[in-house]
Amino acid sequence: MASETDIKFVIVPGNGAGEVTCANWYGWISNKLKHAGVQCSLRNMPDPITAKESVWLPFMEKELGCDQHTIIVGHSSGAEAAMRYAETHQVYGIVLVSACVTDLGIDNERASGYYNRPWDWEKIKVNSQIIAQFGSVDDPFIPWSEQEEVAKGLGSNLFKFTDRGHFMQFQFPELLKLLLSLVKNAS
């Protein structure tokens, strides 16, 4: 088991986020984690509109340093990137926000490459000690049935909300509480 000082977080945003430090809750949570003395990486992603798997996964490995001590916090397209990454790489954990399993019939999502084959739930579970998920039934982009399918496939600890939409708020205290508890429990 990793020690508290070994754990690091990498936040992988959704596509189209623009400057990630100012988008949604990403910068807020990164600053809160750093203030608590926890290592956290948050960077603008290459190919930010289509979020191609062939671009994002190598970037996560080589530039963001995702490894067996990393908890990847992925939002929307970033959640799919976290799951695909964990299919082939050992990570400490994945925390998914607004995750889905299909391209939802959207050409740009299809072009990303995440949805062109079945999800290997067993490999993801083997490679991740911790799997948690946040979803909201009123998400205007991701149907609840898609989020439930992720939870079923991964056996994830699903935090269900009814009023958060696509989690595009500027603060996310429930996620922060979970992340800090994961660090504490790792020691």
From TrEMBL:
Pfam families: Ser_hydrolase. PANTHER family: SERINE HYDROLASE RBBP9. One of its GO terms (molecular function) is hydrolase activity. This is AB hydrolase-1 domain-containing protein. InterPro entries: AB_hydrolase_fold, RBBP9/YdeN. It comes from Arion vulgaris. Coiled coil: none annotated. The lineage of its organism: Eukaryota, Metazoa, Spiralia, Lophotrochozoa, Mollusca.
